[in-house]
Amino acid sequence: MNYKSTDNLKCDFLIIGAGVIGLTTAYELKKTQPECTIAIIEKEPDVARHASGRNSGVLHAGFYYTSDSLKAKFTKDGNRLMKEFCRENEIYINECKKVVVATNEEELKSLYELEKRGKQNNVDVRLIDEEELYQIEPNSKTFKKALFSPTTASVNPVEVCQKLKQILVQKGIEFFFNTIYLKNKGNLVSTNNQRFEAGFVINAAGLYADLIARNFGFSKKYVIIPFKGRYLKYTGKDCPVRTNIYPVPNLKNPFLGVHYTVTSNNSIKIGPTATPAFWRENYSGFRNFKLSEFLEIAYYESKLLVLNSFNFRELAISEIRKYNKKYFSSLALKLSSNCDPRNFSEWMMPGIRAQLLNKETMQLEMDFIVESNDHSLHILNAVSPAFTCSFSFAKFLVNEKIPTSSVLKSSISA
After folding, report:
1. Cβ atoms within 10 A of the Cβ of 97, count?
2. pLDDT tens digits along 364-375
3. Mean of the per-residue pLDDT values for the chain?
4. CA gap 287, 149 in Å, rounded
5. Which phi and psi angles does 93 have, rounded to 5°?
């Protein structure tokens, strides 16, 4: 719905952002509070135009994260719930599985740590030897051992979000596209089209969540630092791998390293990059350039360079090198036995990771961060594997963080 009105539109819940987190939160709200009224505003003309529609679609298993983290809590259940949703709605799931491979003795130690985390999180994961690895993925190679994740899979994220939108519309939830959040006075929210009077506001704005949260008095010690992720598509006629092949990650930062991804339609890609971006929607050229964003982000990235927090200097240099296709593909070839790097020839649509930085510690936040009060909730850090976690995370928000619709009993009306 797109129209202008001078009257306030009243609703029990106003959700800012129509990515997968906003959509699944609305979905869960309607399940638990079927009589509530919900409006979703989105500055784009449709759902999933940013991270939710540009991610790999991989459904992670949940063995990367320590057992005391929210990511560990949500990933395993999120994997199951997303698969249930897809099966119920006839969305294809590519059960392509995953192997994590090592290149040396030091990485082998990290594999044991990942297996330990997986077991603590009750995830189906196990160490395998080189012979069994060859049976699962003949084109992979490892140092002595590999980690096997049978529940990792891939789906089409845009298809998932479009189905969610269809279901939500059927349930009476109103979408307001091309509607940009401008400001708030309490829970009276102004946009470029009209004002909304909401019983409770849910900020699921992704790349802009920190700025909107500041308007409500939150996100005082956080800022979003965008990182650009790009993949190279395999354009050869053969199919070099049938299983996701990942390297051992650096457990001190949230990036998983260059890996082979098998998509929902069985195409192969390598990536992603994690290149520091200079404004929130820095996809290509100077499109969507905003000077205020550039100045703020450049300031914090300069501080990170000087302080070299979480080895940011080395990260930035290595990521710039990945714009060279030959170098980029060489990183993936460390994981496989035989693959023609010349066939990794086509850059795919880039995505931007909305990564939260703690301004006090100058460290990246590794887990979900939510701030709230009785009137609003702000999802500040919902990075990978947020797509996998989305249904489980939404259940958590609805059951533990969001009040009942008795806050404001009214229907949406002009």
Report:
1. 19
2. 999 999 999 999
3. 94
4. 39
5. -115, 120
SS (H, E, C) the chain: CCCCCCCEEEEEEEEECCCHHHHHHHHHHHHHCCCCCEEEECCCCCCCCCHHHHCCCEECCCCCCCCCCHHHHHHHHHHHHHHHHHHHCCCCCECCCEEEECCCHHHHHHHHHHHHHHHHCCCCCEEEEHHHHHHHCCCECCCCEEEEECCCEECCHHHHHHHHHHHHHHCCCEEECCCCEEEEECCEEEECCCEEEEEEEEECCHHHHHHHHHHCCCCCCEEEEEEEECCEEECCCCCCCCCEEEECCCCCCCCCCCEEEECCCCCEEEECCCEECCCCCCCCCCCCCCHHHHHHHHHHHHHHHHHCHHHHHHHHHHHHHCCCHHHHHHHHHCCECCCCHHHEEEECCCEEEEEEEECCCCEECCCCEEEECCCEEEEEECCCCHHHHHHHHHHHHHHHHCCCHHHCCCCCCC
Calculate mean pLDDT across residues 50-61.
96
Taking the C-alpha atoms of residue 161 and residue 361, their distance in angstroms, rounded to an integer, is: 35
> How far from each other are the two terminal CA atoms of the chain, in whole angstroms?
13
Q: Is the pLDDT of residue 181 over 60?
A: yes
**Strand pairing partners for 95?**
none
| Those residues with Cβ within 8 angstroms of residue 270's Cβ, 6 or more apart along the chain or in another chain | 231, 232, 234, 258, 259, 260, 261, 328, 329, 331, 332, 344
The arithmetic mean of pLDDT across residues 242-258, rounded, is 88
Cα gap 84→91, rounded to integer Å: 10
Is the per-residue pLDDT at 4 higher than 70?
Answer: no
Give the pLDDT confidence of 89-147 residue by residue, as tens digits.
Answer: 999 999 999 999 999 999 999 999 999 999 999 999 999 999 999 999 999 999 999 99
Angle between helices 70-88 and 157-170 (to 10 degrees): 70
The predicted model gives 283-304 an average pLDDT of 96
Closest CA to 378 of 158, 224, 193, 229: 224
Q: What is the pTM of this model?
A: 0.95
Q: Specify the pLDDT at position 2.
A: 47
Q: For residue 381, what are the β-bridge partners?
A: 369
- Judge whether residue 407 has pLDDT over 70: no
